[in-house]
Design goal:
This is Phosphate ABC transporter substrate-binding protein. Keywords: Signal. It comes from Photobacterium sanctipauli. The strands form 2 sheets. A 5-stranded mixed sheet has the order 5-4-6-1-7, with helices on both faces. The protein has a two-stranded antiparallel sheet with strand order 2-3. By secondary structure, the chain is of the alpha/beta class. The chain has 2 domains: 33 residues; 120 residues, Periplasmic binding protein-like II (D-Maltodextrin-Binding Protein, domain 2). The chain is 47% helix and 17% strand. A hairpin with a 3-residue loop joins strand 2 and strand 3.
Length: 157
């Protein structure tokens, strides 16, 4: 009986570790399959090249076609989608982007995109409807059919 009780914690630990490794693997694999759409509800917005999308999200440009002044919106800092998006598009982490934007803001060369309080697609769409020249990003499968997708960003591109 005593021997059986001594094995219980070891068995519980082994089961927990197995569960965690399976859970972590499936979540990680799922995250890698996500592709993002950079989109607007304004049908007059032109499509973007990857280079132009990078320039927008680095604050290097605020206009499209030389005349359309755009406004970017960002997901909350704690959003897994924000981390994935910046990693896919720019190869940067959130902390690297925060440092980058802090530097631009301090020098007066730029301000970071407005940050939403939620990454719910309804909140993103509400913001876009209030900002006709607004551009947002979200997982492709969450973007409504009537949105103007400017570019899709895939893992490993």
């Amino acid at each position: 009986m005593l021997n059986g009780l001594k094995l219980m914690p070891k068995l519980a630990t082994a089961c927990l570790l197995t569960f965690l490794s399976l859970t972590t693997t499936s979540v990680h694999a799922e995250a890698k399959d996500v592709e993002f759409a950079v989109f607007s509800m304004n049908n007059d917005m032109p499509t973007l090249s990857k280079s132009k999308a990078r320039m927008l999200y680095k604050g290097k440009t605020k206009k499209l076609n030389g005349s359309i002044k755009i406004i970017l919106v960002d997901l909350p800092e704690n959003s897994i989608h924000r981390e994935e998006f910046y990693n896919m598009l720019l190869g940067k982490s959130i902390s690297q982007m925060n440092g980058y934007w802090a530097s631009l803001s301090f020098s007066g060369k730029g301000t970071p995109p407005e940050e939403l309080s939620s990454d719910d697609i309804k909140d993103i769409l509400e913001w876009l409807n209030q900002n006709p020249n607004g551009i947002a990003y979200a997982p492709v499968n969450a973007v409504p059919e009537n949105a103007n997708i400017l570019i899709t960003v895939l893992q490993g591109e």
